[in-house]
């Protein structure tokens, strides 16, 4: 109560235009609160914006996460690009996970099929998820996956193994200073999240 | 800090408080401070809170330096060491520097603008009183089973999510409250400056001090919500199964750093722009000369603020950015040196052919200009991407930001505190003690932070509890400097307490070269000032811009 | 005060390489073309900053010395000058451009990862490094080899520390001299950062993503670095050691590794049929435990709860089945810091460490675990 009284005192004591002042204050506060809310939203908007940014620039070597159609008009036989495959298990997933071949030479525009071997060594069923990453990051935009086991989750029963395929081609537009391309898969245990 | 002054009407000459009887309701004891909506009371609360947090964060730093005094783990375990560095950073940034500046804003803005109070006094009360709760949660987590946050004040995911020690929820909650407090404080500052200026005080007549707080408040409003957003994502990632920053679920840990530093870089300027405002007040006062290049100072401050939004990724050069990204952020960062340089040149030009005296506020201001500039130089070195690969995450970076934040922001706070203590308390501070405070701080702070440059260049990573033997000599000196600097700050506590209790009576304007509306009211400043707006004559006299 | 610091700055630049050789004050020149470019750039900026500092602080101290009130100085009245202000905006821009040009050139060179001779996959893992040679079967963990008692000085303070205290590992990374070596860097858990100052290579290891870096070292030798990104408790205890060998020595080393792998495989086979005594198991178990487990679960077995649970009296190591215990050690535990040791330790070591955990610190279960039991859990035929 006394707070209100105090406040009133101040308002009286400002000057004769105190009511206009309060109106102005309220207006400004509302505008600023709007900015606050907008910036809070912007923080979250940065998530999709970041993805768009990554798509455009190939930042962090993110590749397409859904299948794309083969659209290359020809095969550029004059160029050869080395594509290397590496794998890594994140902590806590007891799978064997290896590329069947380590590297392959491709011509831009040429479609290739390679496979990866996985085996669940644990005594329980596990759902795995392979997360791809391409280096150099700029090449990610020119590496197109037509079919990939990384598009979906991979459930494997205890002790079972599987050969998983990846079909891809390298874009004809791949910048000429890129001659080696590395595709890495990190395997995660997502059993808990997927159930 | 201030004493009650019911006799203001008799001492203030430039204004007349016609509502003297309004003070009757003023409460006493703890209730006065809990319910206060008076900008001076709240400013006092902020300043004391900041100082207590400064001592708390300092105590944590003392343990860190004691552990690093010699190689080997003598006192603490590595995990606790990480908790110490994390909480030290958070307490100093959000508990000491930022509230101290808000304290200055509360005390000084209405008086400098010729306004009776802040525009939103009740919100002002709230924005202060939620702060102690935030820090109670943060510091209280030391005593929880999980321990305090141990992932660095930058809380990079996934160390702070999947691999955290369970303190993430406390941390997020505390940061949310700090954020809300800062946003409320900032809104109050903006509204006050926009709507409460005395009639006749145009924007370009405002003291530069007001300008820097105005721009800082806008920065706060723009980026604190982003911080709130990113800690919310952290919370849901840790406890509610989202995957913003978890690669397994399609997220990206590097995105965390982008969002964090989108907040974090403007945050750095939030902690230094008000410092520019303070020394732009003190240097002209003790040079007895107007501030050189007032308009260019305003523009330089604004352009630093704008640039701060497009340089965030210079904290992330080693995360694997594409070449053009590294180049873009390098060029933008280097560009910041230009407006910052303009400021330093302007301060030197203000002193040039002035009539200098060296009272304690001036000593701290001069030390600020030199040492902040050294921090700026190392900042420029860090901006060079190829070399940053060597400096990044070493003690060179630690040296850099402590030069900017301790000998920068903190020294400016001391300059401002000594400058306005007579206005706040009505007494002059003890000059001898204050000089001791200055010289002890100056010597020890350089012993503390300068050798860190060498440690970083020689290859000592930051945030390690133990180090290789070639770093031992410098670490010993750094620790000695640290203890000395910590002790020196107790002198300041003594000065302030002595000053509140008594001392030579301060006149309304104790500094002959000072200009500003705050000097037209009595010392100590009456509980209510400028209930009647100041005269145009007073406003023009206080104009830093010149004629 | 400021003057004093300036003198320091100047001294540093003058004596960086000669008088102060013992305690390193300046950035290393390193042993690669890139690291030397980086060093030159560092010195260039340092000199420019020092010069600007001397000029600006010089003017300031001139003012402090001669424009003081006590010397009767009267304040001048100027407070702006467009000419001067334009000048001190323009000159810094020119200086910055002069700095940006060499910086850009060096950066472009650093980012050119093409045409490498050797590729090595580097993985950061709490708190060790894993190296895997692309196209070779060679892969191994590289772990701090400084004995715990040298750095755990809470009780004993008089332990003598070795020459390379905290900068030594059991198995260093080995690379050939004068060859372009490409690093593909990633992480198993949190973010780490692989840094060797002498190569001017520092690259973050991000979980789920790969980063590239490269080096071409010109002098054989041993180079040391550390993890540069806070990665949890033992961030300060995961050093990097790189041994750079001549072409012949490198080939010899590769051969040795191949032979060692073959020998280890046959030893594994042999251990399957062998049965170890409790003493043998406990002894090997204790050594293995100290090297791989005690950082988290502590030598006392009490752990550091809640992140790192106690093993002493824990159901896992007492009443629980041996199979489940082996499963956790062999395969790790998802969502926690517990990693899979199946690939890091031999069958024999795992058998020993599990035996040790089930019998030490009063967990006196009396259980004995043999290599064959571990093999059964591993899921491999």
TrEMBL record, chain B:
GO terms for cellular component: plasma membrane; respiratory chain complex IV. InterPro entries: Cyt_c_oxase-like_su1_dom, Cyt_c_oxase-like_su1_sf, Cyt_C_Oxase_1, Cyt_c_Oxase_su1_BS, Cyt_c_oxase_su1_dom, Cyt_c_oxidase_su1_bac. Coiled coil: none annotated. Keywords: Cell membrane, Copper, Electron transport, Heme, Iron, Membrane, Metal-binding, Respiratory chain, Translocase, Transmembrane, Transmembrane helix, Transport. It is an enzyme of class 7 (translocase). Pfam families: COX1. Pathway: Energy metabolism; oxidative phosphorylation. It is found in: Cell membrane; Membrane. The keyword Nucleus does not apply. One of its GO terms (biological process) is respiratory electron transport chain. It is a multi-pass membrane protein. Its EC number is 7.1.1.9. It catalyses: 4 Fe(II)-[cytochrome c] + O2 + 8 H(+)(in) = 4 Fe(III)-[cytochrome c] + 2 H2O + 4 H(+)(out). Its main location: membrane. One of its GO terms (molecular function) is cytochrome-c oxidase activity. The chain crosses the membrane at residues 45-66, 86-107, 128-148, 168-196, 208-235, 255-279, 291-315, 327-349, 361-383, 395-415, 436-457, 477-497. Residues 33-537 form the Cytochrome oxidase subunit I profile domain. Belongs to the heme-copper respiratory oxidase family. Cytochrome c oxidase is the component of the respiratory chain that catalyzes the reduction of oxygen to water. Subunits 1-3 form the functional core of the enzyme complex. CO I is the catalytic subunit of the enzyme. Electrons originating in cytochrome c are transferred via the copper A center of subunit 2 and heme A of subunit 1 to the bimetallic center formed by heme A3 and copper B. This is Cytochrome c oxidase subunit 1. It comes from Colwellia psychrerythraea. The lineage of its organism: Bacteria, Pseudomonadati, Pseudomonadota, Gammaproteobacteria, Alteromonadales.
From TrEMBL, chain C:
SUPFAM superfamilies: Cupredoxins, Cytochrome c, Cytochrome c oxidase subunit II-like, transmembrane region. The chain crosses the membrane at residues 45-65, 86-108. One of its GO terms (biological process) is ATP synthesis coupled electron transport. Its cofactor is Cu cation. Keywords: Copper, Electron transport, Heme, Iron, Membrane, Metal-binding, Respiratory chain, Signal, Translocase, Transmembrane, Transmembrane helix, Transport. The keyword Iron applies. Its EC number is 7.1.1.9. It catalyses: 4 Fe(II)-[cytochrome c] + O2 + 8 H(+)(in) = 4 Fe(III)-[cytochrome c] + 2 H2O + 4 H(+)(out). Binds a copper A center. Residues 280-361 form the Cytochrome c domain. PROSITE patterns: COX2, COX2_CUA, COX2_TM, CYTC. Residues 19-114 form the Cytochrome oxidase subunit II transmembrane region profile domain. It comes from the Bacteria. One of its GO terms (molecular function) is oxidoreductase activity. Residues 115-256 form the Cytochrome oxidase subunit II copper A binding domain. Subunits I and II form the functional core of the enzyme complex. Electrons originating in cytochrome c are transferred via heme a and Cu(A) to the binuclear center formed by heme a3 and Cu(B). PANTHER family: CYTOCHROME C OXIDASE SUBUNIT 2 (PTHR22888:SF9), CYTOCHROME C OXIDASE, SUBUNIT II (PTHR22888). Belongs to the cytochrome c oxidase subunit 2 family. This is Cytochrome c oxidase subunit 2.
